[in-house]
Amino acid sequence: MSSSRSAVKGKGKAVLRPSQIQLGGFNESPLWNHVKVTGGATSGGGNRHWMCNYCNKKVTGSYSKVKGHLLAIPLCGVTTCKNLSAEIMKAIKKEHDDAERRKNIRILEARK
Questions:
Q1: What's the pTM?
Q2: What share of the chain is helix, strand, coil (3-state, %, to 5)?
Q3: Dihedral over alpha carbons 99, 75, 51, 14 (to 10 degrees)
């Protein structure tokens, strides 16, 4: 898998994310907007080296660990972000839920 990355502007600075080709589009994986991808991991799969934009925690893992970290999902093999306010957490959860809803609608429409 290629380790290409794309720059996304946010809060006045560029944030690196895996390419859209690798993820199937950022609309399905919006939580990449909240971490800075610092490189591809050698372990393969969807793993990346990334750092949380809120607490600066450095992690090697896939989108599942990004979700676990930002949405405080237990048993994801990563600690919860300690620097998210309730307001930011709510906004991130809504962003994730909206993306999941869009993805599920698209899947259902494809089955018709």
A1: 0.72
A2: 40, 25, 35
A3: 0
| pLDDT values of the chain reduced to their tens digit, one per residue, 112 residues | 333 334 444 444 444 444 443 444 445 789 999 999 998 877 667 889 999 999 999 999 999 999 999 999 999 999 999 999 999 999 999 999 999 999 899 888 888 7
CB-CB contact of 50 with 84 (8 Å) = no
Kindly provide the b/e burial profile for residues 79-109, where b requires at least 16 CB atoms within 10 angstroms of the residue's own CB: ebbeebeeeebeebeeebeebeeeeeeeeee
Within 13-112, residue ranges assigned H as helices are 20-23, 63-71, 86-111
Beta-carbon count within 10 A of 42 CB: 9
Tokens read off for 54: 């809120």
Sign of the torsion angle spanned by Cα atoms 90, 93, 97, 98: positive
